[in-house]
Amino acid sequence: MDAQSRGRADDIDPADQWVLNPQTGNYELRLSDSEEHSPAVGDSPRVPRGRSESAAGEPRPGGRRRAPSPESGEEDTPPRDDRVPGQRSRRAGGNRRPAEPEAPAGRRKRKAKKSGKRTFLLWTSGVTAFLVVAGAGGAYALYRHFNGNIGTVDVGSAGNKNVTSPGPMNILIIGTDKRTGEGNEGYGDAGSVGHADTNILFHVSADRTNATALSIPRDLVMDIPDCETKQADGTTKVIPGTENERFNTSLGQEGRDPGCTMRTVKELTGLSVDHFMMVDFNAVKELSTAVGGVTVCMAKPINDSKSHLKLPKGESKVEGETALALLRTRHSFGNESDLDRIKVQQQFLGSMIRQMKSDDTLTSPTKLFKLANAATKALTVDSGIGSVAKLTTLAKELAKVDAKNITFTTVPVIDNPDEPTPVTVVVHPTKAEQLFETMRQDVSLTEVAAQKKAAAAKEKSAQEALLDGARAKAADVRVDVYNGGDIDGAAGATVSWLQLEKGVLKSTNKANAPAKTEKTTLAYAPDQADQARTLADMMGLPASALKQGTEDAEGLEAMTLTLGADFKGAGVAVDAPAAAPTDIQRASADKAVCSE
Predict the structure, then answer these.
(1) CATH number of the structural domain spanning residue 464
(2) Are residues 392 and 313 part of one domain?
(3) Which range marks the domain in which residue 81 is found?
(4) The pairing of beta strand 169-176 with beta strand 275-279
(5) Number of alpha carbons in the 13 Å side-chain half-sphere of residue 458
(6) Strand partners, 170
(7) Are 453 and 460 in contact (CB under 8 A)?
(8) How confident is residue 513, by pLDDT bands cut at 50, 70 and 90?
(9) Are both 494 and 433 inside the same structural domain?
(10) Does 202 or 573 have the greater pLDDT score?
(11) Number of independent structural domains in the chain
């Protein structure tokens, strides 16, 4: 039995089976006309005659059996034995709300205080909606219904982290170009096995105060690593990696599963991916419709003959086919590249987040039901979060992040230099690693109060530690760079960064150092102290890294910079928290922007 079939039998909308209990503040499922509200917290439950239970949980005559909870390890979560209001029939005054209980004499009724910190991510929004609805008693039928909607993939060791474990959490959102579903056959390659078409790595900070949503271009060329996949018969197959492939082939190609895409993201960013959520075209259509449409803004009128997208200048509300057309089109924005389409997708997701936390959604049982149903149908996840109970726990963690502290950005890239007419991209030689290190160090792209305070204290300490004195101009700094660390090509990348980003044109790549070293050092002559201070500022070197030579060293043409194991990447401070490049693409989930 499910909520939908039961409701329709009495001509009752499934969503109308939920009402707000003024005593508890929760939405509750009305199981029959005779049931009343659940008791408020602290009240003694009133058990109807003939419905009592024994201490062991076995029903006495006329009673109901109490089913096990998800925490007990069993599959299904039963309803509590709470009493909820009777169902409203549409036929005879059924739309009237039950009378609220009168307040005790001499005591004024107080309005429930609304929380302003509920935030949602698009692909988990329906799960969070379920959390709001199913948090009330009597959710057993819905639990089974939603649980049966979710598809799962066993990715083995690619992602096993408990969502409540301490530390940062990384969730990979994969939007595939698979053409299954009604009305989707005409989109692009009808025979596609489903590649990683849209990819967002959602990094949630350890303290859950902020998150970074990193978009990964599908046309990014990189090495796809070897991938261990689980087969239908239970065996394991290793799919060999390939060099210089587009990122989107990390899924579908050669039988690669989402675990392969997770490993490819780790190869690219150095961040371990804990879980994945995968959706197809239907998800966009169904979720945007279930939430009642998503408000978007166009900087100019749109009339795209290829995607059939027509939108006026200014704000519009899109859903269904129109929402999908907006996310798929790239000929109406910017230079018609996938990178500009990513910006539009980020703006759409930000608007969806704002819509999901609005009172218009949170107070509507109809929207919550439809959204939870659509989201669970659309989702395919790893087995580590492959149940409503686990997704609800995940939703609770994500709901701790305020929307104003969610920042969208994109992997910094450049045109592929190996193509005469570039159609693909490669990672930026310096900016990409800076951004990845920022995320690896769990530094937010949106400053929060605690981060500001810690950064200020760190900066003050670093400034006090540096040698006092004059600084040379960047053009006057001479330095030879050696690689004594663990990153291949670090000396060359550093020289490129110094020359292109900092104007240190008199820097030279000396390749590998004679031996490996733990710490980065800068050796200089006494008459090069001003140059050393300038380079130390640029590199974020501590005072302990500066090694002044003797008087005999005077007259040397260049200082000697030896990169050690503590070196994290070109442009990444050696002895300070990582900082993302200032000129990368960013967008806030809390601000509306018109697509150009």
Answers:
(1) 3.30.70.2390
(2) yes
(3) 1-41+75-90
(4) parallel
(5) 15
(6) 203
(7) no
(8) very high
(9) no
(10) 202
(11) 3
